[in-house]
Specification:
The protein is built from nine helices and 13 strands. It is of the alpha/beta class.
């Protein structure tokens, strides 16, 4: 099976490289500079030239706050480019694995969101990602949509790396403590995707939406506390004081879901994939980052 990974220079793309590099699949890794999703003619020519059996779309516009000022660009990458990809997959009879987000929900629930629950995104980013999902579903392509949340790793830009950067320069930090979600280690997400491939290879499944995220809910404040606890053990500089604040005291351009916990039993039952142990993920990411710096 020939697999094309789009967004190979991002954090999930790099984790997919780590998890797939020793597999027997025929692999093509492409960064945004090599295949630009916003250039539809180039995108089409490249995809038709490669003729992949499966495309993993790890590329997206993920600047949540910036999207409020750039709705056209967010929609171009997260919706229209995804529609183009799905149409090409339909044309080639290829599978599409697409990564979506918890931000398609409004965050007003009190129980974890299941895959079939009502979507109601509250920000431009979430709306653009939901439109991308809908474009895939109506394309006729064979697809797996994976909604995930609070993704972090040793690569790219993410909350863990932001905390380390801020902790190095400040003695006191204020972190939002009234938004709840499930951090997801990108290496675990990559492993979950890889675990799906044998079933896809056999063409023994239907198109589905799955949720995959961390095993235990927490607030951003609790996530930060866990990061700094482990970071201290690895010799990273950490702040002396971390305060929990309410969302109202930390206004952002984009509205975040107050409760963003995803129910992940479906993917566990279908592929025997356990949820991401994000505390182990923090430790693993910090260890790798320490090795990068040594």
């Amino acid at each position: 099976m020939k697999i094309l990974v789009l967004g190979s220079s991002g954090q999930l793309g790099r984790c997919l490289y780590d998890q797939l590099s020793e597999s027997s699949y025929e692999l093509v890794f492409s960064s945004r500079t090599e295949i630009d999703l916003s250039n539809f003619s180039s995108l089409k020519n490249n995809i038709l030239s490669i003729k992949p059996d499966l495309i993993i779309n790890a590329s997206a516009y993920t600047a949540v706050d910036k999207a409020e000022d750039e709705p056209k660009i967010a929609n171009l990458i997260n919706n229209f480019a995804v529609k183009e990809l799905a149409d090409l997959c339909h044309e080639l009879n290829s599978w599409l694995i697409h990564i979506s987000t918890d931000y398609v929900f409004d965050g007003t629930a009190i129980l974890p969101y299941k895959e079939d629950e009502q979507t109601n995104p509250q920000c431009i980013y979430g709306k653009s990602k939901l439109k991308g999902e809908q474009a895939i579903k109506t394309s006729g392509a064979k697809y797996i949509i994976i909604r995930t949340a609070w993704v972090f790793s040793e690569y790219g830009n993410n909350f863990l790396k932001t905390m380390l950067r801020l902790g190095e320069g400040k003695n006191e930090l204020n972190i939002v403590g009234d938004q709840v979600g499930c951090p997801t280690y990108a290496q675990d997400l990559a492993k979950a995707i890889v675990s799906m491939l044998p079933t896809i290879t056999l063409d023994k499944m239907n198109s589905e939406v799955f949720h995959f995220c961390g095993d235990q809910p927490c607030t951003w404040y609790e996530f930060a506390q866990s990061i700094f606890l482990e970071a201290d053990n690895f010799g990273f500089k950490i702040p002396t004081q971390v305060n929990s604040i309410e969302t109202i005291n930390y206004p952002t351009p984009a509205t975040r879901p107050a409760y963003s916990v995803l129910e992940c039993s479906k993917i566990r039952k279908t592929f025997l994939v356990p949820p991401s142990n994000w505390r182990d993920g923090i430790r693993s990411a910090l260890k790798k980052m320490k090795n990068f710096n040594d």
